[in-house]
Write a structure and sequence with these properties.
5 helices; elongated; single chain
């Protein structure tokens, strides 16, 4: 599995923001009400980021030999969860970032200032989630095997330590 590139996440977030901005401008232009962001959103984003980080820290300790009892399947699942956190954080940053852009354009409307702040804070939480996903992916990185050890596994009869 390849590590997620931050440039890819930035592209996803920028595209999501642009699409959200276009759709919400069309909704507002037709007299529709723009969505508000509940305060619980940020708490959930940060909680998920904390869980992913703690799972990643356990894998990091396992790879350094400090936690030998960790199940390798759990380590693999943690790497997949980290990748999912990266993409989820980027998508949410795009969604909430697009809301910020839309609301900042209409600050004269009563209540839009508070909505813009809430969406901005949610955007920050989504960025934290994506960043934690990238860090945990790095934690789960397994170093490549040494060249001599790999050759010994492929040809055990030629391994001098096998005799």
């Amino acid at each position: 599995m390849h590590r997620t590139r931050w440039q890819t996440l930035l592209l996803i977030a920028a595209t999501g923001s642009a699409v959200t901005w276009i759709v919400l401008r069309a909704v507002a232009g037709r007299g529709g009400m723009l969505p508000s962001v509940p305060g619980l959103v940020v708490a959930v984003e940060v909680l998920i980021a904390a869980v992913v980080f703690s799972m990643g820290w356990a894998v990091r300790q396992f790879l350094r030999g400090k936690r030998p009892t960790l199940d390798p399947i759990r380590a693999a699942r943690t790497a997949v969860l980290a990748k999912a956190s990266c993409y989820t954080g980027a998508l949410l940053a795009g969604w909430y970032g697009g809301q910020v852009l839309t609301l900042v354009g209409d600050l004269g409307v009563p209540g839009n200032g508070g909505r813009a702040v809430a969406a901005g804070v949610a955007t920050g939480g989504a960025i934290v989630l994506a960043a934690v996903g990238l860090v945990v992916e790095w934690f789960c990185r397994v170093p490549p095997p040494e060249e001599g050890a790999e050759a010994a596994r492929e040809h055990p009869a030629t391994d001098p330590s096998a005799t």
